[in-house]
Write a structure and sequence with these properties.
4 copies of one chain form a homotetramer. Chain A is mainly alpha-helical. The first copy, chain A, contains 14 helices and 4 strands. Chain A has helices at about 1-5, 10-15, 20-40, 45-55, 60-70, 75-90, 100-135, 155-180, 200-210, 225-250, 280-300, 310-340, 345-355, 365-380, and strands at about 140-145, 150-155, 260, 340-345. Chain A has a two-stranded antiparallel sheet. In chain A, strands 3-4 form a two-stranded antiparallel ribbon. The longest helix of chain A is centred in the first third of the chain and has 37 residues, at about 100-135. Chain A is elongated. The two termini of chain A are about 40 Å apart.
Chain lengths: ~375, ~375, ~375, ~375
């Protein structure tokens, strides 16, 4: 857990731990039974027995070994569930479903909780950036290009561009998550065979129960939405990484224009008492160093074989989860940094003066206003 | 050109050749002068002289060396332009603009032509897939999962999933391209300084002239849209690669269910006269092997320094261009493959019978209909 | 653990769990104190007290939170160690060392155990491949190129090429691991300051104690060897993935030339009793889909800032560990597959005959002999 | 060419242009004929006619279209060669060879010229770094960690670590290039069929003629060495990128400790006359942003199908070439930067004093000596 917590939050670890995975997989089985009872495919009494069994305790460690041996979680999980419900109801368990239906839907359910956390803290980050942009709309500082002093800007202009970057990334994430976090229900070859022609109806009921998107047909080997979601997460991490890059440069001793807030026991050095390391930026930059390649893994997995592939989709879940973890770790690290950012406007003025590039900030203030208006338009519910 | 043409089309090579780049860069300068004249920043006569000079011939090879030496194309290009227009009008050239304004806008202009090619051939590919799905909605074949025979499907169900994959990817591409292919005009530090408060007006006029999107503020170091566009291109390439993966597996001698069309002189072997290689699939699969990592490069470039970064945005253009090239190469290879695909329904029936998995295709036909309805809804202009 | 065990072994999980990390970090502190006592920098009695304290129990969960808060493990770990040894000896704890010294060395120590596991099972895989190559040196089968039947080969030729691929990868891994798994000891800025000019002597003693390589100078921000090791691991995973690719194609129902061994409860389907999925190949192919991008993350992290960077090296450990896990997961999955591979030579003969490409296997047998001779030469201790 | 020259050298462009590719492919055919004549497989007169024809002019543009149509360069090239030599000798052209034999060997031949350029300029870079390390072995400056001032170092210690990074990378490159740049000759399925049992002898003679490594068996689908070479190039680019990262940070106006040499017309700004951009660093950092993902593409291509794959190896050549181009572009940009680096030791002293961290540089000087000794040991011919 030491290395996990260095990169993500305890909350996000909980979203993807074994208990949560098993609960999500069992939520699939319960919703399946419920929908099948509703459409007359299994007795209502079976659905109730199954639903009850789906809330019971599970020895996840034993299950882990069984799943690794079987090659998929669904096999031992369904076996246990069948044993739990008795021989009669057992016939109604997992009816017409395949392992990947469980795996994909469970990931979608966990993914929704993950997105909720990210949206909560993304909003907090944007609120902090908004305040910075407003407060410093007219605060002059040196603009820097190609790592050289260029012309004056305002700190608010910089902060408003950070804000737009995060806002754009959050908008993209919302769209992609809406597509990707979907119900999977197609059965062994994705044809909904063996369900008396009621497979699609069952799927629609399940999607409603689980509050998941339902694509026109099973997406067992059509994974563009997963790749799109992964890219969106990586772009969000990159947008936060951009803030961390700038702040870490501004916090350099020779520049000294902005600093992470002092937090007791954070950012120290095991060797140098005088140091105050930009630890939040460190987390965000480390995430930004890892995320792009994870997104690439998901895109690379697209050409999966036939109706359900070998190795491709099995590679996706751990990668997508890592992206969720890094995204939330990055947000959790940067929300307090932005909320408590120490801005030294005197140092900004001093460095600007030293650069001898005048004091014309052009249309910086007007642009801050445009950026904030655009951001606020995105907040509208019907945007 | 030998290795280029193995991966992309002559048309796409032309979109990104030196002449096109210089023309796009000069289109920026002409539009800038025109807009600045319109808003009273420079004399109208200067704008005319500049516009005229922007259509003249350019020694692109010499320019290449000068640009490499200077570290940016704009410097020698603007120098030449100033010389061409004479000392008076020279003062009105490139006024308030910076190198990256030219570079980004030129890439956007070239990118729009690239997207046009991709949309044209993407539509052709989807038309071919639609025909396949309709024709074979009820054609039974063996569904295969984890590279093992599973249950019956129909070939139309497979083709309709290919279609949805490409359709989703094209939709995403349209959205991302609309955001990313934008006017860049901010001046040295992105403040529109030195333009008498009319910078934003100038930008709006330019965006209209060049038919480009205009974000709320300059995006010199806010590159999420570029990363989003790159991801969308890579996902499209992956969606096409999925088709190529399946077809190449179906074309194996022992399976022999579908084949690329016979084209004289294509797919032969320098060593074996009997061979008929899936050359279109080869191009698409090679593209799918390269694209994900290119997208990752664009995402990795997000944390750029300050107002305009060092090395990050300079890395983007060649990578994005490579993605455009691979996307079109992939489409150009697969459009005729799908249009002329040889489908051996007898072999499909034979392999299905041999697998002894019955003939129940479940709700395959109904799902084809749902997929096609979803596709057609996406075609609606107001979708 | 469910998702972890789907991709790696219990053994490798243990190598990188919290207990192992803390033990490795404390081994650094103990070796440091021992070496400093030996070179007269601290009292011998302190070294003994420290060494004793370094074997005591640690609340790793609490430590995880403290480390996440501090931004580095060393700070809370050293604090606890100082408390454990008493005020006097506390002055001799972590003397002249910095957080990254601990982090890098601990990773090296864990990495060595990881490499041991990989070498053990790599040898087992190669032994299995050697047997296959010898047994089937003359077994004819259809050679396939561009996924089309080409000319006859022997199965031994194919197996011997698999063997050479793994052997080459193991050789590279040995070299890179020898360079990368090194002692780190340089202190805060890598100058060995505050050690009375005996810093290098201390480092040499520590390297000997811990049995680690010692580069000429601290490598806090010179990370080529880490990137080289990551690439070597990814290439190994790719070489194993190549075997899995071929086997999964040979196991297709229509080809049916080779199969993973039957193992009770493995490779089943939750939906289809008749299926026998290539589960070992699935694990290896999923690993091969993830590893390349992980290697890229390590290479991308190379341009780290100044003496010790921000975000770059902090990103490396989790990525390198993931590569170790995937490499061992891949080996653990494929060793039994190769050891128990079911080869259907009759099917090979049948498919070859059906392809009508004659029976000339060229110099296949002689090449098998050359491959095996090359492999055996690599086994020589002085090779 | 504008965008090409922004990233690489004219020399490297020439190594990989169409003329060079065709010349390399024809060198393969000539060497093949010569070796086959030597081993009695074809008449010596044919070999002479073929060798002569292999030096004739080729319409590379026409060939590009033919190759794209055929799906491989060898088919139209061999056709033209057969026409050129007349009907009799035509039978002796390309005997027993396959398209990939030509493609791989041609890439190896071009790769050797590329490596030569990189070794030439790598040596120049290291010579410059050596001078810096020697000159400034004792020059004090502020060491910086996590982008914060830490403790004193010497500039020579920093330069010597840069040197070791490049040296290590060059050593790795030499080893990997030696393995990867190999003769490919196996025929259609890699069995050397149809050559009367003399195939291996022919291969050995060819390897000698072309001065290429010869692995134990054909490596058509055993691509670890290609992936290893790609990784080595990317790591070299990263090691150079590390230097560029540090220099660009040192050149910041507020730090001002080191600057790229003034070169007339280089590093200017199209908008700001006062600027002096670190253009060499820009090229190196842009290369370092692209290279890691290119290496990943080569590793990802490892699991190629059967005897010769579909799409995998076809994806490799353009990627490997891009890595060669970026590596040389990076070197070409940084050799003059290091050779002419302006070091402001007074600014170093001033910043160090301002940081109030004393002046103890620990064992910095001794470590410079150790680093230089290690570097010089690597220069020994028998090292």
């Amino acid at each position: 857990m030491i290395r996990d917590l260095a990169a993500t939050s305890l909350e996000m670890l909980a979203v993807f731990d074994d208990d949560a995975l098993v609960a999500a997989a069992l939520a699939f089985e319960a919703a399946l039974a419920k929908a099948q009872a509703e459409h007359g495919l299994i007795p209502a009494a079976h659905a109730e027995i199954i639903a009850a069994a789906c809330t019971g305790p599970v020895d996840t460690d034993a299950l882990a070994f069984e799943a690794a041996h079987a090659g998929t979680l669904a096999i031992p999980l369904v076996k246990r569930l069948r044993e739990a419900v008795g021989a009669e109801a057992a016939k109604s368990v997992h009816l017409g479903a395949t392992s990947q239906d469980v795996a994909d839907t469970a990931l979608s359910l966990q993914g929704q909780e993950a997105v909720d956390l990210i949206e909560r803290d993304g909003a907090a980050l944007m609120a902090g950036l908004l305040r910075l942009a407003e407060t410093h709309a007219a605060t002059p500082m040196l603009g820097r290009t190609l790592l050289q002093g260029a012309l004056p800007i305002t700190f608010g202009l910089k902060a408003s561009s950070w804000l737009l970057g995060v806002d754009n990334a959050m908008q993209r994430l919302g769209i992609e998550a809406g597509d990707a976090l979907a119900l999977q229900f197609g059965g062994a070859a994705g044809t909904l065979a063996g369900l008396d022609g009621k497979g699609r109806d069952v799927a629609e009921t399940m999607a409603e129960t689980l509050d998941l998107h339902l694509p026109p047909t099973p997406w067992h080997s059509r994974r563009d939405a997963i790749a799109g979601l992964g890219s969106a997460l990586a772009i969000l991490i990159g947008a936060i990484g951009k803030i961390a890059r700038d702040l870490s440069l501004l916090a350099q001793g020779e520049v000294a224009e902005a600093f992470e807030p002092r937090v007791d026991g954070r950012g120290g050095s095991s060797a140098m008492a005088h140091k105050r390391n930009p630890t939040g930026c460190q987390v965000a930059l480390a995430a930004a160093a890892r995320a792009p390649q994870l997104a690439a893994s998901l895109i690379a997995a697209l050409p999966q074989e036939h109706e359900r592939g070998l190795g491709g989709w099995q590679a996706e879940a751990p990668v997508l989860i890592e992206l969720f973890k890094l995204a939330h770790g990055s947000l959790a690290a940067m929300v307090p940094v932005i909320a408590g950012l120490e801005v030294d406007t005197a140092a900004m003025a001093r460095n600007l003066a030293a650069a001898k590039v005048g004091d014309d900030v052009g249309e910086a203030e007007a642009m801050v206003a445009m950026a904030l208006a655009a951001f606020e338009a995105d907040l509208e519910p019907d945007a």
